[in-house]
User: Fold this.
Amino acid sequence: MDCFLSKATGLLSSARLRISIIPRHHFSPSVILPLSPRHQTSITQQAKMSSSSGKLLSGGAKMPPMIYGTAWKKDHTADLVYEAIKAGFRAIDTAAMKRHYDEALAGEGIRRAIQDGLVKREELYIQTKFSPEDEAYADTTLYPSIADQVRASVASSLKNLSTSSSDPTYLDSLVLHSPYPNHMDTLAAWTTLQEFVPETIRALGISNTTLGVLHTLSQAPGVTCPPSIVQNRFRRAERAWDAAIRRWCTECDMAYQGFWTLTGNRADWPTAPFVRELADAAGVELETAWYALIQAVGVVVLNGTTNPAHMREDLEGTKKIAEWRETDEGKAVWDPCFAAFRELVGVVG
Ligand SMILES: NC(=O)c1ccc[n+]([C@@H]2O[C@H](COP(=O)([O-])OP(=O)(O)OC[C@H]3O[C@@H](n4cnc5c(N)ncnc54)[C@H](OP(=O)(O)O)[C@@H]3O)[C@@H](O)[C@H]2O)c1
Assistant:
């Protein structure tokens, strides 16, 4: 069942079970109804939108095409987040998961950048995660239900990522870090997260997901706010570049964020002739050329560099390629390289 059909069926079954008002921004007609071919955005147009301007989510948040990832930065998190914003990043990804992230230090870096006048809150896209595996809320005497755990985690994230003592804190998106082993628990977490949308959390996403879970979250009774974002491994080894899920995201107008794009694909990008050809012709590093190709198939890149020079190179280089490929000279190199890349990772549009 495709995304549209699944959502429409879900809506009907939900409506039978309960009377509810579905917020307009959650199920806009363009999400429920397949567009006619005349109205469908062409692949080339999609590539332009996703690589240069970012993605507008259903709740109004704007997601830039490259997000700074804060995993494994430990005590350097605040300084690296500050450096990333200084270099031009306008999106930060963190998580309420102490083992891999320091959300409080991510918030500190963001606040420092705002206080120093590098950026305004409304120019930033701030994303965190509720992590079912985190130990912070695992004590069932204190947090007896999944709903209690989710609410406690969200309250803590809002505190960590607060940017002003006067304005109400909001998050551009909150991602369920992974589905639970069973759908009932996943739905319990999801329906609790929905309580915060749209005032406190603009959009919801899910990470490390399968198509089955997306299907459930788009049609289960009680789901009024289906995912706007998927955050998954973008790798050959992962269900052939996650092509089926990327296709689902395209059909549902959802954002697809890819991680481990460099570290998870060392057998591919360093040796691919079309990556080298593109990098040489555009005058950028191999990593940047690889990122530009990934963005052009609609994948929002999570970039985990710890090196300020790489931060600037990646942001400026991908922007440079997006402009250069519009020129006759650039197009002559870009088109065959992009065709080879699309053949590698699958055409989903
Ligand atoms: N949802 C999840 O379960 C999940 C899991 C993993 C990651 N993530 C998110 O994805 C983010 C990125 O993950 P990642 O750090 O593993 O993957 P990555 O961005 O694929 O890899 C970053 C590594 O590549 C190196 N690198 C070399 N040249 C680079 C360049 N020009 N630009 C960027 N990096 C370059 C970096 O070294 P230098 O530091 O020397 O540049 C760093 O060691 C994480 O921070 C996190 O936010 C989410």
In short: Confidence is low (pLDDT under 50) at residues 11-50. The pocket of NAP is lined by residues 69-71, 93, 207-208, 231, 259-263, 285, 287, 302-307, 310, 313-314 (CB under 6 Å).
